[in-house]
Amino acid sequence: MEGINSKGSPYNRWRDLEGDGSHFGEAYDGSSDPFDIASTKNAPIDRLRRWRQAALVLNASRRFRYTLHLKKEEEKRQTLRKFRVHVQAIRAAYLFQSAGDQTNEVTKPPVPRGDFGISQDQLALMTRDHNSVALEEYGGVKGLSDLLKTNLDKGIHGEDADLLARRNMFGSNTYPQKRGRGFWMFLWEAWQDLTLVILIIAAVASLVLGIKTEGIKEGWYDGGSIAFAVILVIVVTAISDYRQSLQFQNLNEEKRNIHLEVVRGGRRVEVSIYDIVVGDVVPLNIGDQVPADGVLISGHSLAIDESSMTGESKIVHKDSKRPFLMSGCKVADGSGTMLVTSVGINTEWGLLMASISEDTGEETPLQVRLNGVATFIGIVGLTVAAAVLVVLLIRYFTGHTKNSDGTVQFRAGKTSLGDAVDGAIKIVTVAVTIVVVAVPEGLPLAVTLTLAYSMRKMMADKALVRRLSACETMGSATTICSDKTGTLTLNQMTVVEAYAGGKKIVPADTAPYLPSVLVSLLIEGIAQNTNGSVYAPDGGGEVEVSGSPTEKAILQWGIKLGMNFDAVRSESSIVHVFPFNSEKKRGGVAVKLADAQVHIHWKGAAEIVLASCAQCMDSNEGLVGMDEEKLLFFKKAIEDMAANSLRCVAIAYRTYDWNDIPNDEESLTKWALPEDELILLAVIGLKDPCRPSVKDAVQLCQNAGVKVRMVTGDNLQTAKAIALECGILGSNADATEPNLIEGKSFRALSDAQREEVAEMISVMGRSSPTDKLLLVQALRKRGHVVAVTGDGTNDAPALHEADIGLAMGIQGTEVAKESSDIIILDDNFASVVKVVRWGRSVYANIQKFIQFQLTVNVAALVINVVAAVSSGYVPLNAVQLLWVNLIMDTLGALALATEPPTDHLMHRSPVGRREPLITNIMWRNLLLQAAYQVTVLLVLNFRGRSLLNLQHDDTAHANKVKNTLIFNAFVFCQIFNEFNARKPDESNVFSGVTKNHLFMGIVGLTLVLQVIIIEFLGKFTSTVRLNWKQWIVSIVIAVISWPLALAGKLLPVPETPLSEYFSRGFYRLTRILRHHQNQ
């Protein structure tokens, strides 16, 4: 079965469900590194499977929770395939039945239910079976609307009581969703860490042996303290994970909540898709999603893409013979209105969504790379832990391990079996705890944490993230291809200038100066050739105009000319419509008047409509030939208006013979509206001011190394004027080819020329969606990370092709939104720039966390290894290491991964996709801090008794004080180093720290808990209380890390990443070995 993921199709909601990865167009370089995936947006399934298999994982259910669930993804595909087969089987059965003798077919008469004349079962059966016979039996669409108490023109009344009655009778437009996982499930998943399971087993064994040898009063401390520490780690981890999942659930709800227009009480109102009820009249335009099952009331060239339901990519044309519309499908072309007959679970779409509603996640490139880093560190940690285990066991069983009082712990043949096992368990516990600290299980999950935080904050900044990976990819964006209208401008259009009747009219609403015939034709063209509407309240009051900003501006101008919208539309009937097309940049309508005359009205891009005009109307209502002089007059008028940043629209018409129009519905659908020999009625200029914040936003992008390019369907002169106004073009001197280029010129170039020219383009005018797609492809081939804005259905291929597709939330169609990665809710370019800031912040926060965590890793491992090998015991025991792990993993991630973005981020160049995660600056910082901590703590370990004046104390107590000080100083070093990690490349690490309340809260909480542990929980952590001098020593050791970090930042680092030096060394070594082999 061919799915909708065929190349070039913009309708790709289910592209990931239908394909097996082979169709994806992303160029993969065949890298042997499984963790080297530049983009996960279109990554093949086998690449995603490879990195999972290569990762060193202690707790798979937690590590892979926010990645694409490959098994569930396959199950989702299977469900979808079965459902589509089911839909097609029903269709086939109905066609087979209808092919037989229909004279015997009897449709049950409508059964009244409550206040309505038909039951939900009858409606659902008719719609599901596409049963036209039943529809006719019910009296057609008009009869059905009467049964549902709906007016086909004015819709339902829309009062609360009416809506409630309809929901009670026919259901609401929602479907049951699988409940998100509860807290206990996260707690269960946190338990499944292999190392924690081993520690729990060791704790139980230690508990049993301790109680057996020392009695219950004293013997439970060792095992109990380890068990408590493990449970604390598990609970804190589960709480953190559960909070993240709630954030993702809320964001998913927001993604599914589509807003659309319905007709209620004669006016168009915007409602949520969940508020649609049976009986609603819904206008449909190109790019819309069909919100529920229904039947077509009227339509013009209406074409529906049903591939999301049937799996077949062909477009289905809808008319009175094929009136049934299925929920979840997209409007591919044309326009129309529908009557809703079934909603929610009573539709096939509702049944499908209820069966596959669980989100299976998605990984990001950074997540994959961090799994690679975690795997490398984990292997080193496992090796170190194994070495420590072997050394400690050998020393223990050979009698080289001594107690704190100097006695040997194990004597062959003398030590009891219970004591020997207890000693061995303690050694295994230490080794396993080293693995817990060494394998940074939380490192890849820190990405999810910072993404969840960023996505929530981005909602406040008017950006809804649909794909996690886009959030971080935006930080690497090198160019943004932006629309003009509504993104760089306010999208608040007004007609400010007009050329009509052979003269210029300013202001544009001076109807008395125009001849009556011209005004009448203009009003007819404005009222009929539109997909907007005008609502005039019965009791008077302000007129409400709805539609796109361009349509609204022209309708408002028509009202000023004296237009009565409803009256004009009732005087003539629409015969055929050519919906506005972004390729042809014009739209037309054929209308039949009461006297059987036919007028064909066109409206569109001024110079394009002008080229089709043979005549124009003068001030005396006479028709004048469009000679060279007139043509130059209008061209000059268009240029002058465009130079003043006005959008130029021409309105023209022609007459046509009724007998030449096809009289059957099928031929009429295929009939092309005549677009030659037109009579020009007016050329109007619409003012759409630049957004006040856009110039600063463009400047900010340029400072950040991100080039902003304007790609617009408007006149090149209009585009140039707006580009100069908002700073995309610096001056008139920049406004030359190829900086300023027309879409058709770019399209005509060869592939190689396009790549070269694309680099220089700042403004592309009169561009089609194809030109936008070609520009995106050319820029990506040049190595750019491209972000593209789009709002139309035809923008879908460019949005899909781009590294980051940004759809407009207000003007964007559902097709554009579903092809996008991020939806800009206010259509504002300044919000796009905020997304860039957040993208960079995600990357920066992860780097902060890596620097912090690796410092702890290196220091803890080196201290324990050196101490174990040299003296046979470790200064940091299992419980202490688990507390350090909690600070490092969960609390550290919360503190550092939720840092808000700063202006400093926008003074850097974009982050390269293959730049090393650990930069030379980070290596310098972490190695300096780790070396300092290791040196100080090892000196304390070996010379602590003398330095702390403990020589005269009891040996056991002196060692406990020394080890407690080492533990305390080590934890304080980590707390103080969290401040250093906030600003890896800035001198002032305290800048803005008080604004991050979560960071301050976590640091404060860690300090308080550390004091409680030392002062009150010594029995559990094998520590003793410290006096005030020892507390000061601990704090001084930690405070030194601040001036040390500042001094370290004065040390220069090479620009070439350290990883490249290692690669070169490895390459040279390989060459030398090969050379020796050849000899």
Automatic annotation (TrEMBL):
The chain crosses the membrane at residues 186-211, 223-242, 373-397, 427-453, 854-874, 921-940, 998-1018, 1030-1051. CDD domains: P-type_ATPase_Ca_PMCA-like. GO terms for molecular function: ATP binding; ATP hydrolysis activity; calmodulin binding; metal ion binding; P-type calcium transporter activity. Pfam families: CaATP_NAI, Cation_ATPase, Cation_ATPase_C, Cation_ATPase_N, E1-E2_ATPase. Residues 137-211 form the Cation-transporting P-type ATPase N-terminal domain. Catalyzes the hydrolysis of ATP coupled with the transport of calcium. Belongs to the cation transport ATPase (P-type) (TC 3.A.3) family. Type IIB subfamily. This is Calcium-transporting ATPase. It comes from Trapa incisa.
